[in-house]
Amino acid sequence: MATPRKQYAVSRPLYSEDAFSQDHHKIDRRRKTPRDHVKDYLTCDSKRAQRALLSLLPVVGWMRLYRLREWLLGDVVSGVSTGLVAIMQGLAFSLMASLPASYGLYTAFFPMLIYFFLGTSRHISVGSFPVLSLMVGDVVTRLVPLNGPPANITGFQGLSPDQQRVLVASSVTFLMGLFQLAMGVLQMGFIVVYLSDTLVSGFTTAAAVHILVSQLKFVLGLVVPGFSGPLSIIYTLEKIFVQITDTNICDLVTSIIIMVVVFIVKEISDRYKSKLPVPIPIEVIVTVIACGVSYGFNFQDTYGVDVVGEMVSGYEAPIAPNMDVFRESATEAFPIAIVGFAVAFSVAKVYSIKHGYAIDGNQELIAFGVSNIFGATFRSFAASTALSRTAIQESSGGKTQVAGLISAMMAMIVTVALAFLLEPLPTSVLGALVIVNLKGMLMQVGQVPFLWRRDRPDCVVWVVTCLAAILLGLDLGLAVGLGIELITVVFRTQFPRCSVLANIVGTDLYRDQKDYACTHEPTGLKIFRIPSPIFFANVEFFREKLIEAVGFNPLRVLRKRNKALRKIKKLLKRKEMPVTENGDVHLFYQQPSKESEDETDVEDLDLDLPADFQDLPVHIDWSAELPAGISVPRVELHSLVLDFAAVSFLDMSAIVGLRTILKEFVRLHVDVYIVSCDAYVLEKLRGCVFFDAEIPTSMFFPTLHDAVLHALGHREDAGGPIHVVSNTKL
Amino acid sequence: MATPRKQYAVSRPLYSEDAFSQDHHKIDRRRKTPRDHVKDYLTCDSKRAQRALLSLLPVVGWMRLYRLREWLLGDVVSGVSTGLVAIMQGLAFSLMASLPASYGLYTAFFPMLIYFFLGTSRHISVGSFPVLSLMVGDVVTRLVPLNGPPANITGFQGLSPDQQRVLVASSVTFLMGLFQLAMGVLQMGFIVVYLSDTLVSGFTTAAAVHILVSQLKFVLGLVVPGFSGPLSIIYTLEKIFVQITDTNICDLVTSIIIMVVVFIVKEISDRYKSKLPVPIPIEVIVTVIACGVSYGFNFQDTYGVDVVGEMVSGYEAPIAPNMDVFRESATEAFPIAIVGFAVAFSVAKVYSIKHGYAIDGNQELIAFGVSNIFGATFRSFAASTALSRTAIQESSGGKTQVAGLISAMMAMIVTVALAFLLEPLPTSVLGALVIVNLKGMLMQVGQVPFLWRRDRPDCVVWVVTCLAAILLGLDLGLAVGLGIELITVVFRTQFPRCSVLANIVGTDLYRDQKDYACTHEPTGLKIFRIPSPIFFANVEFFREKLIEAVGFNPLRVLRKRNKALRKIKKLLKRKEMPVTENGDVHLFYQQPSKESEDETDVEDLDLDLPADFQDLPVHIDWSAELPAGISVPRVELHSLVLDFAAVSFLDMSAIVGLRTILKEFVRLHVDVYIVSCDAYVLEKLRGCVFFDAEIPTSMFFPTLHDAVLHALGHREDAGGPIHVVSNTKL
To answer: Which residue in A62, A256, A488, B53 has the fewest CB atoms around it within 10 Å?
Structure first.
């Protein structure tokens, strides 16, 4: 698309910001004060109440629109397929959380009951999520280690280790739910924006590594105690390698066969996705086969294979959370709450965009908060969503959370009636299935070279988050990742490339003078572009770059001038210096006494004030030659233009620093202009009492060209105005 | 200064960025690669070696320029006055660090010996600093509590509690020195920029509160065990109030008298500062008097007053740092190292600007690192500088670190010969002197209302840092403050005020259309200004604001159009829809079969692709009326201009998000233009493969007006071009 050569012609008055606002009256917009916002927020009428109720119970909204004939079949089919996967994952993930397998089935049931009423996403499958299970498992093994006595917690007395573990898991889940609910009520759903895609990708890759390591013991049939805290992954791997000779061959062979079969079937299923009505439920098929084979050949007794074992049939009585566990696990429950919400919300967002409906972050927080509190009371553990399960629910035709409800019912049926069927299932089968499903998460490592080429800071965030999460553990790793992410934002604006601009001959455009040959920089005028916001971390940097650009330190020159002035005054007092008739100091005057070393120590701060020409009968032209013995650096600069187009904000340090440097230039009689300043930045400068006699508002101009034309017109003695004429090429 | 009304006239070709670069060839600047930088850095010749040596031993530089006759007297006078204060402070601050008083004298001596050779500041007084003393004291009381057994550390065996404390303090100081040295060698002096003035102010105010509380026990003559960790200040206060009835009246009265006297004399001295040759050494005077009185009336035995007690006379043998203490205190030594350096550097900077010489942050780190390592070996504790002492050194005429050396000698003389004179000094006197000197630090609270009015985020940083440092302790508080400070930077750019711009009639200027009455917005053209960098935390926000500004969701419209297209294709296939001769679909055609609810579920993703007009014999004009039963939202917009002037950077999330939303508009046949994009941002977009057939580089324009003129010229059917004519007012 070649741009047709048209002409650009403008003729208007030259505007400074002051002149512009004289000609164009600004409308006095009344902005809402914080009080207005609070008032608005607290106003209540029946319509608002109704809307609030509807937003608190989204089920009312979508149930009214439910198209029974069209949607129900899809929801049922989807619910059944999702339910099968949810059961499998529930078993596997409860082992990951160091809990007996049946509690995974609880997690597939209870949270969903609440989410059905409170959730705004129609497609996510609520239930266990491997990363959360692992994080809960960390707390569980810390408080109730496999070998060694449990932590000193009142409420553990008289409980078996498994019961202690369930108590810990449900208490952590309860606390996590409380955190989520509190954040939802406080409207803090926006926090997910801080978890950038890069951060989440690095974090989940690290989580996949942790999950992989945690499953090795099942696949190899080894007994490995759980470690927690920094470097626990190293200790776990060490423990595994020490025992590697004790590997249970039956477990290993079963696992490898299952991994290979599932992997191949998944690849095929992926390739012919469009031709298959529903994805092949290969995990369910191998589980059923494995159950049968294990039962038939009595794997448990014959080969010493670890099986799921006795399942709790039916449901147990509700349980109260334990305060001691709250205290012990508060710092871990918070990241669990954040991760749980972040994952669910990001998955929900994908499908809400795909299907064109709105989800509400705060309501999701409330929904998951209440779901987890409710679930924890019935001994289920941390619930969120798993991407894989949600993909199945959506792709197999699920339209609403009715599908979720049906999948929860499936889990209930298994819990109540069919749990005994799963008892001979080897744990290595579950481990193998988990590992096979990690492929996608681990493949994210491929992003690193891509990010490295495109955006270094993003790459650093990915790598640091991933390494920190692997080595320090998921909770600390998340904190480190967040810190690094925030630092990169600061870093991106901290060392920007400042540039000196010059006019592109024949136009009103200004570009970096080093980039173009056909530029014109009028003598005595510098245009300095500040390409980023100014704040505490870069205000000094800009000062240095500006001094470099103009070629002198204004403060130093000012001091030298003031010192010279003092000397001249002293000489004049002694009447040793002849004054010409027109009031100029005689130029080639030889100073009689050698006194240049005599730097008497007057209060130094006076030197930073503007040169004081009062009670001086002569006129001093600093750029002319001065009496011998008195030397002051020459300043060729008469106008300095600062391009503020990219200065999107200033903080207090920046305002103070900017004011200081501007004053230094003004005191050297350099005209300073600020151009293209954002209206809100200007408003803020006014609010911060930035302006005074030395820094007037008249230094602001709407465009660079206005300021340059004004500056050159203002200093007739300078190198002549820029001639902007029509380009002859046309 | 009224701007004289001049004319602004421009006539040049209309430029897009592409056209501009055709006309103006960009110089191919070779940028230094990281490898070049490394090469430069490693290149070595004799000149560089000499300069490196000089920068490592700044003493060589300034000693050569030393003006013996002029400077020596000032240095000696200043050294003596500073020395007296340094001795006093040394005693007081070593009590603050829970150490016997004589170690404060060591701290006034050893570190200075090294700083003399390595330091770049000529005016700071090196030695103890109250905040550091307190932070060291926290570690000391944690590892060797007043009541209760010391921590389990090898090396404590056979040592008295005081010796254990000295071992802990010197080990922490050694480690702190190591951290500083390492940071200096790694050229990490830039970290001080992250400690903004606001943060430092909030932090030091909190430190003053801690110091005040720590001195209460001396002033009241109570025995209070040291607490450490979060909320320790609450426990300390509780302990003090519980014992308040045991207050030693003699201590209290002495303290109050001293505080009142010193306060009044300081105020007077401040008022007549200009008339006094040196500040009145009131602290030294009251100390001498208090020593005399305490000795004369035998305060210790008569009133049970706590005195400084036996001083170590002379110096002790060097001590090796303890590895166990390193391990226990690593997380505390790091903030101590940072705070020590930050305070010294900021004080040094003030005087270097005042006297016009350069200081080097990295060399200062090295200097303090080595000073502290050396000092720690000789049992002194953490050294930095104190603002009060430095002010005395400079104001009493100190020109170079010769003054510092003389003040160190004073401390040495007292240690070696006169220490016994200080033994009867009540500790309450030292406490009172410390408290009186906190006035300036505590008065910083006055900044809060000022900051609140000027800059809310800065105010939040101050308050959070201060409260966190008070309640959580200084080290954790500093970390929290840094975190909040980084978050505010992100926050400032996260919810910026986007605006829709419109042309100011008769000019080439564009302003927020809500702000001005005399604006013109051409029909079908929107100008959207993005007033901040775009990154992970605000890319979604911009998407929402843009959708709000244009008034429709492009993705939704695209899907509706594609659905309508499918329907039309189906109707055409069944030949049920008459096509007019010129290929248009007949407008008022009544659809025969009611089929609008039949939304068959084809792969949804197809709906997001550009409308596929192939194998369609008709031309569809979306803005004309469509066949009945088919409705698609009307899109009036034909051109969208995004003002990128303030977009100083984009991260990967932003690039991906921007690309998505731009494509959605392009697929609706809206022409998108990006204007005033920074050269480096454009370069980065090229590097990230941002461009393709749908998003060509030709959408970039140098100015808003160029883009608008082009857009209006490009769409003749639109509301006519903007006429920019000379303003008739002239």
So the answer is: B53
- Which ranges of B611-722 would DSSP assign to H, the alpha helix? 652-667, 679-687, 704-714
Residue of A nearest to B601 (CA): A397
Pairing of the two strands B499-504 and B525-529: antiparallel
Question: Does B693 contact A at CB distance below 8 Å?
Answer: no
- CB of B132 closer than 8 Å to CB of B165: no
CB atoms within 10 A of CB B220: 20
Mind listing the pLDDT tens digit for each residue in B67-107? 888 889 889 989 998 998 899 899 999 988 989 988 999 99
Cβ-nearest to A356 among B518, B556, B729: B556
Dmax over CA atoms of chain A, in Å, equals 122
Give kind and range of the element (H or E) at residue B527.
Answer: strand B525-529
Instruction: Mark which residues 343-362 of B lie under 8 Å from A by CB.
Output: 353-356
**How far from chain centre, in Å, is Cα A691?**
36
Nearest CB partner across the interface for B193, out of A13, A514, A536:
A536
Q: What gap in Å lies between CA B663 and CA B609, rounded to an integer? A: 9
User: What pLDDT, in 10s, does the model give residues B58-68?
Assistant: 888 888 888 88
| Dist CA B215 CA A460 (whole Å) | 46
Residue in B10, B199, B651 closest to A508 by CB: B10
| Binary contact (B493, A649; C-beta < 8 A) | yes
State how far the Cα of B265 lies from the Cα of B281, in Å rounded to an integer: 10
CB B111 within 8 A of CB B372: yes
Closest CA to A594 of A618, A629, A634: A629
**Cβ–Cβ contacts within 10 Å for residue B414, how many?**
24
What whole-number distance in Å separates Cα of residue B385 and Cα of residue A384? 53
Beta carbons of B507 and A15 less than 8 Å apart: yes
Task: Tell me the nearest-neighbour CA distance from B652 into chain A, angstroms.
Answer: 7
Distance between CA atoms of residues B482 and B376, nearest Å: 28
Tokens linked to A19:
């002149």
pTM given for the model = 0.83
Least confident of A418-422, A579-583, B284-288: A579-583
- Is A148 in CB contact (< 8 Å) with chain B? no
CA angle B41, B44, B48 (to 5 degrees): 90
Residue B246: CA count within 13 A, CB half-sphere? 14
Q: At A13, is the secondary structure helix, strand, or coil?
A: strand
* Partners of residue A559 in chain B, C-beta under 8 Å: 356
Instruction: Report whether A384 contacts A205 (CB < 8 A).
Output: no
Residue A430 has pLDDT above 70, yes or no: yes
CB A299 within 8 A of CB A305: yes
Sign of the four-CA dihedral B532, B535, B536, B542: positive
d(Cα A394, Cα A348) in Å, to the nearest integer?
Answer: 11
B14·A26 Cβ contact <8 A:
no
B30 interfaces chain A, CB cutoff of 8 Å? no
Query: In a 3-state reduction of DSSP, which class is residue A375?
Result: helix
Euclidean distance between CA atoms A255 and A430, whole angstroms: 9
| Dihedral pair phi/psi, residue B672, rounded to 5° | -105, 135
Task: Give the model's pLDDT for residue B158.
Answer: 85
**What percent helix, strand, coil does chain B show, rounded to 5?**
60, 5, 35
Nearest to B109 by CA among B96, B90, B95: B90
Q: What ipTM is given for this predicted complex?
A: 0.84
A8, B12: Cβ pair inside 8 Å?
yes
Cα separation of B135 and B143, whole Å? 13
CA of residue B175 relative to chain centroid, distance: 25
| Residue of B566 and B726 predicted with greater confidence | B566
Residue whose C-alpha is closest to residue A636's, from A546, A710, A719: A719
- Which one of A472, A606, A649 would you mutate to disrupt binding with B, by most B Cβ within 10 Å of its Cβ? A649
